[in-house]
Amino acid sequence: MDKKLREQTQFELVNIIESVGVTCVIVTHDQEEAMTMAARIAVMSHGRIMQIGSPHDVYETPNCRFVAEFIGDANLLEGKLTLDKPDQCEVQTPQALIHVGHGITGVLGAEVAVAIRPEKSISTWMRPLKVSMRYKARCAKLPTWAATAPTMWRLLMAST
C-alpha cells in the first residue's frame, strides 16, 4: 500500500472499531500509526511494559528515559538534581542550570535527564523579552543565547 492509501485505511479501521463499539488490540512498531489510531498505547521494551496511557500523555509526559527517546524526538540533557519542590525543580547540566515547572520527589544530587522536544523549543540569538524565572534556561557559555520551552520540559529519573 502507498502512504496515502495506508493512512485512509487506518482512519477507516478506527471509524469501524468506534462505530461497532469493540475493543481492539493492534500491535505495531510504527509510532505514527500507534499515535494516530490508538485511544491508549503501551510502550514495551524487551517484553516489559514501560508506560501505558493516551498517546498525548505518553508523548508529553514520558515516565522514563526509554519512552522519551522511543516516542518522537527528544534532546536529553544529563545533569544532577539540585532543587526539588512539588511545583519546580532545578537540574545542573554542563550546559546550563535548568529550571523545570514540576517536581519529581527525587534525591538531591541524583543523576537525571531533562527531555526537551525540539518542536516545543524556541532558539534565538536574542534575549527573550519576558521569561518566567521559574522556567528560564540560562546557558553559561553563551550569555546572549536562550532556549525556551517553559511548559514542555520533562524531568526524567535515570532508569535502572
Q: How much helicity do the residues have?
A: 10-25%
Name of the top-level CATH class of the largest domain: Mainly Beta
- Secondary-structure element order, N to C: HHEEHHEEEEEEEE
Report the end-to-end length measured between terminal Cα atoms: 41 Å
The whole-angstrom Rg is 19 Å
Q: How is the largest sheet built, in terms of strand order?
A: 8-5-4-3-6-10
- The helix tally amounts to 4
Notable features of this structure?
6-stranded antiparallel beta sheet; 4 helices; OB fold (Dihydrolipoamide Acetyltransferase, E2P); Rossmann fold; elongated; disordered C terminus; 32% strand; 160 residues; 10 strands; alpha+beta
Describe the protein:
The protein has 160 residues and is an alpha+beta fold. The protein has 2 domains: 1-65, P-loop containing nucleotide triphosphate hydrolases (Rossmann fold); 73-160, OB fold (Dihydrolipoamide Acetyltransferase, E2P) (Beta Barrel), CATH 2.40.50. 23% of the residues lie in helices and 32% in strands. The protein has 4 helices and 10 strands. It has helices at 3-20, 31-37, 55-60, 65-70, and strands at residues 41-45, 48-53, 75-85, 88-92, 96-100, 111-116, 122-124, 137-139, 146-148, 154-157. Strands 8-5-4-3-6-10 form a 6-stranded antiparallel sheet. Strands 1-2 form a two-stranded antiparallel sheet. Strand 3 and strand 4 form a beta hairpin. The longest helix is centred in the N-terminal third of the chain and has 18 residues, at 3-20. It is elongated, with a radius of gyration of 19 Å. Residues 130-160 have low confidence and may be disordered.
